[in-house]
Amino acid sequence: MTTSTFSKTDEYGFVRPDDFDYVEYEKFMSVYLNLLTNYSMKWVRLLLNNSQMKRNAKLKKFVRTGIPLVLRARVWTSVSGVQKLKDRYGPDMYKQMLRKPINEDIRNIITVDVPRTYPDNIFFHPNSENQKTLFRILCAFAACNPEVGYCQGLNYIAGLLLLITKNEESCFWLLRVLVENILPDYYSKTMDGVIVDIEVFSRLVKKKFPEVSQHMNDLDMPWALVATKWFICLFSEVLPIETTLRVWDCLFYEGSKVIFRVGLMLVKHYKKELLECEDIASLAECFKSIVQRPFPLNCHIFIKQMFTEIGSLPMSLINDLRRQVSAERDADKSTYKNRKG
Amino acid sequence: MANRAVPQRPNGQTPGKICQFKLVLLGESSVGKSSLVLRFVKGQFHEYQESTIGAAFLTQTIHLNDVAVKFEIWDTAGQERYHSLAPMYYRGAQAAIVVYDITNQDTFERAKNWVKELQRQATPGIVIALAGNKLDLNTMRSVQTDESQTYAYENGLLFMETSAKTSANVTEIFKAIAEKLPKNETTNTAGQGRRLVESEGANKSLSSCCK
Lengths: 341, 211
Ligand SMILES: Nc1nc2c(ncn2[C@@H]2O[C@H](COP(=O)(O)OP(=O)(O)OP(=O)(O)O)[C@@H](O)[C@H]2O)c(=O)[nH]1
Ligand SMILES: [Mg+2]
Known about the structure:
The structure holds 2 protein chains of 2 kinds. By secondary structure, chain A is mostly helical. Chain A is built from 19 helices and no strands. The longest helix of chain A has 28 residues, at about 20-50. Mean pLDDT of chain A is about 95; it is low at about 1-5. Chain B has a single domain (about 15-180), classed as Rossmann fold (3-Layer(aba) Sandwich). By secondary structure, chain B is α/β, with parallel strands linked by helices. Chain B has 5 helices and 6 strands, in the order E-H-E-E-H-E-H-E-H-E-H. Helices cover about 25% and strands about 25% of the residues of chain B. Classes of the chains: A mainly alpha, B alpha/beta. The interface of A and B includes residues 109, 112, 156 and 284 of A. The structure holds guanosine-5'-triphosphate and magnesium ion. Magnesium ion binds next to helix 1 of chain B.
């Protein structure tokens, strides 16, 4: 990990962008590396006492402060309910799914998407072992969940899971747990879940930062333009990698509401800048640039603030809003149908 | 060689009229929508262009005589299931490029469906161009030029075969759209050169947006 500050690629194999702010990054890393060492020791002690990783306030707090890389795959698997899925479907499921044939269209689109997944990552070079593994995981997933099959965006999620777990089967199960348990209907054939959540997000912004909401309206900028990728890719390919992983730590433990917090934190922190944009082009540009700024890059502060500065965001509120938005959509659909006769 | 977009305003020329248009790209996944935009906006081509999730937004300005035409480009995701998001993106668009891949007949059928949907549901009077992309793969062609040409003619579409890879016809197709868009002077009360269209969604018809 220590070499990363000086390298063109980070420890996950991602090539840093040309305009990468090494100075800012080094400043952050010099503090963060100490923190990590400190936390690693605490984690080891925690896991000695709670080897089953039973959910409790202490574990939650630890997850929010970040899971050490070496423990990440293990903790994600434990806290997210993978074991329950495995118990239900049997440990051989992955191997069975690899043999199950899938729809040819789906196979084709996966074939096209695999080489387009993190093409700049050194571990995903053309014909690399990882590309072949990713192909198998996505096909097995499609076989196992024909409702979803394959949705573009899952390639990035599975790809990042693979980089972290370095284990094909773990990756498959974590992908399942995300798609089938943690996120409501994001990747299905109609993508209803993600459309609803983008609208829920837009209402949360309206409630918490009405000026921003008004400004988006005035400039005719739909949240879907910005937030679709946030929700579908779970901030991979959006936020700096370390920050994305810290978000995923919380996501696996706490569920989908975490995504709203991340979005709200970005809006809150960059509110002034967003409001200064005078047209949709500069607003779109602003959204693209803020996610790579020093504030989100400093994942430690970012994650901490996202839990302290946004106020409460209980799952019950999110679920109420989801129900409300779904009901409105259903009503809209039926009036539309009636109008068309 | 990279055929850069029509040059930025030549030195010394006084700024003339500026027209701003919203343009949306639609079409099946991996036909080359993002590649066309990347070629047009940055003069680049990536062998492994990442698939677009949701939509991407870019702008590019071209010059027609004394008019600067600024395109607000909305590049969308092509997979069928992203279809339900599409109306949010093409709402209020004054122009569209519907893209297919000349080596893949299915993508042409999909393009026709997009054209139908736009003609039914998008801004009335929207300028639609049909792009048969990957012209450099001519030897693997499965959609004949005649067939698309006839279809485009019958449906009142602009039509070109393009290659984002070699840049053939890329700037040309945007230019042809710019030429077809209405650029007559309108009194703009919205200030800042904002568009006048689309305040009522797709119900209002196309109007120009110059200042
Ligand atoms: N040979 C050739 N390849 C092309 C051309 N245009 C695009 N490609 C390739 O086709 C693949 C898909 O291109 P994209 O631009 O990502 O296609 P898209 O339509 O944006 O795809 P989605 O974002 O998934 O909807 C990439 O690997 C490109 O390099 C072309 O004109 N010729
Ligand atoms: Mg694309």
